[in-house]
Every structure is written in structure tokens, then in C-alpha cells.
Specification:
This protein is an alpha+beta fold and 268 residues long. It folds into 2 domains: 115 residues, no CATH class; 105 residues, SH3 type barrels (Roll), CATH 2.30.30. The protein is built from 4 helices and 14 strands. The strands form 4 sheets. It has a 5-stranded antiparallel sheet, with no helix packed on it. Strands 13-12-11-8-14 form a 5-stranded antiparallel sheet, with no helix packed on it. Strands 2-3 form a two-stranded antiparallel ribbon. Strand 9 and strand 10 form a beta hairpin. It starts with 20 loop residues before the first helix and ends with a strand.
Length: 268
């Protein structure tokens, strides 16, 4: 993870992988090809004309805390086009094992910042609190275990469980977030440490103890999986609120917050 010369907008754009000359070359090749792509240029022009960044998508019929069931495989396939999309939203391969399962809605999504720092309106979509992008194996997605997006058409509301599910087994380890003073001593003028941004909203967790969800071992880079360049952890239940974007927000993407090892007191 290399240092950055400009202030990052959020942790989504921090480079977590161990980059080599080959991966840097691949990334720049992909970037240049996108720049000269006529389709990409036209899409950018249309986006500016429609002022997508100023709009929110239509609200979901499900609110945070609602219990829903994912449709079965046949029901899902009946909604998808030949590219496995519905109204532009991809149904990812790692979502199939969740067909027929019941979950609680984490939050509705009406607007989000995409991987290119563009704000996009998202309609009739929610995040489910127990469906991460890593899938059931934890080996899919980008490696950050962010919640997957589900269109309303893929879900049906169900009554809350008669009783709460049995407590999950204790975490293998827990961590306490270091004090604000200790963390500030690690940060550069851009508010980052070894390339990882410490977002202002993370200070409210200082001094608190959380279960460790997992250590990030590999991340998705420019077309390949790479080893993480620095020791970075995910803590159970902590998601970005989008507050870092201030007036440019909101962003409802709900990415998991990333914690450098040096910001934590890890328990063995």
C-alpha cells in the first residue's frame, strides 16, 4: 500500500494490493483504453447532461430492519436479462447460494459513489446485513466483504422470526480501537497511514472493543487478485455511513470500514 499525494474521497479508493510493475502497467492500460473508448466518452457526456450526481433513485418498498426472503432460483432467473442484470444491476454468481434464505434489511440504497468516483442514483434496492460480496465461502468479491445489493423484485417480505436466532459462536478474536491521539500520530497530512485513509467518522469508535470479522489477505486489483500490501482488518458490524462526502453525499453503498493493524489493539 503506497502513500498518496492527494486527499482520498473515501476508503473505497485506497490501493490495498501489493502492486508490481506488471500490475501497474495493466492498470494504466485499462485506464487509457477506457479514456479513448467512444462508448465511455458518450456515457460520460450523457451522465453530465442528466446531472446524475444531483439525483436519488426511487425508494425501496423495504425499510431498514424489515425481514425479507430472497426468491428461489427460478424466480430470480425470471427477472434477469441475458447479462444477468435487472434494470442495470448485476446478479452476481456469489448471490445464488442465498436464494430462498431469510435476512434483515441493513439499509435502502438510493445513491452511491461508484468505483470511478461518480455518484449514481440507485432505485428500489437494499443491502442485506448478512450477505457480503465474499459469498458463502468468503473467497469471492473484492476482498472487503461489503454487503451485496438486492433489487426489490428479488425479495419478498416475511414476518420477523418468532425468536431471535441462536447467538453466533464467539469471534476468534476481538480488537480495541486505539485512542484518537494515538491514531492521529500515525496519519500524514492527507489523513492517511501507509495509503489507508482514516475517515473522520471512525473516531467515534476509538476506545471501543469489537469482534474481528477477519484480516484481509487478498484483494481484487486491475483484473487479478493480489496479496494485501499492509495488515488490514474488518471489524464486525462497522460500515461506512457516507458522511465523509459531506455535501457531495449521501452515499448508501455501506462499504465496510477498513482498519490498519496499527490502529488496533488486537487480542490473541
Amino acid at each position: 500500500m503506497t502513500s498518496t499525494k492527494r486527499r482520498l474521497r473515501c476508503q473505497l479508493h485506497c490501493l490495498l494490493g501489493r502492486y508490481t510493475p506488471i500490475t501497474w502497467a495493466r492498470q494504466w492500460n485499462k485506464h487509457l483504453r477506457a479514456k479513448i473508448s467512444l462508448r465511455s466518452r458518450l456515457r460520460g457526456l450523457l451522465s453530465r447532461r442528466r446531472r446524475l450526481s444531483d439525483r436519488q433513485g426511487a425508494p425501496s418498498r423495504y425499510s431498514a430492519g424489515t425481514w425479507v426472503r430472497v426468491l428461489d432460483e427460478v424466480g430470480i432467473r425470471n427477472t434477469l436479462d441475458r447479462n444477468n442484470r435487472l434494470c442495470g444491476l448485476l446478479w452476481a454468481e456469489q448471490q445464488w447460494p442465498y436464494c430462498g434464505t431469510t435476512h434483515r434489511v441493513l439499509k435502502p440504497v438510493r445513491r452511491m459513489m461508484d468505483d470511478k468516483s461518480k455518484m449514481r442514483p440507485i432505485s428500489r434496492t437494499v443491502l442485506l446485513d448478512t450477505v457480503p460480496c465474499g459469498g458463502t465461502t468468503g473467497l469471492e468479491g473484492c476482498g472487503r466483504e461489503c454487503p451485496m445489493m438486492f433489487r426489490d423484485e428479488w425479495l419478498e417480505e416475511v414476518p420477523p422470526p418468532h425468536k431471535e436466532s441462536a447467538p453466533s459462536s464467539p469471534a476468534d478474536s476481538c480488537a480495541t480501537v486505539r485512542s484518537a491521539g494515538e491514531i492521529k500520530q500515525t496519519l500524514d497530512s492527507n489523513g492517511s497511514y501507509r495509503g489507508l485513509m482514516f475517515m473522520p467518522e471512525m473516531y467515534k469508535h476509538c476506545g471501543l472493543r469489537y469482534p474481528v470479522l477477519r484480516k484481509i489477505g487478498r484483494v481484487w486489483g486491475p483484473g487479478i487478485y493480489m496479496s494485501a500490501a499492509e495488515p488490514v482488518y474488518l471489524l464486525e458490524g462497522l460500515h461506512c455511513t457516507g458522511a465523509v462526502l459531506a455535501e457531495d453525499g449521501p452515499c448508501d453503498r455501506g462499504c465496510r470500514l477498513l482498519w490498519h493493524e496499527d490502529w488496533l489493539e488486537l487480542e490473541q
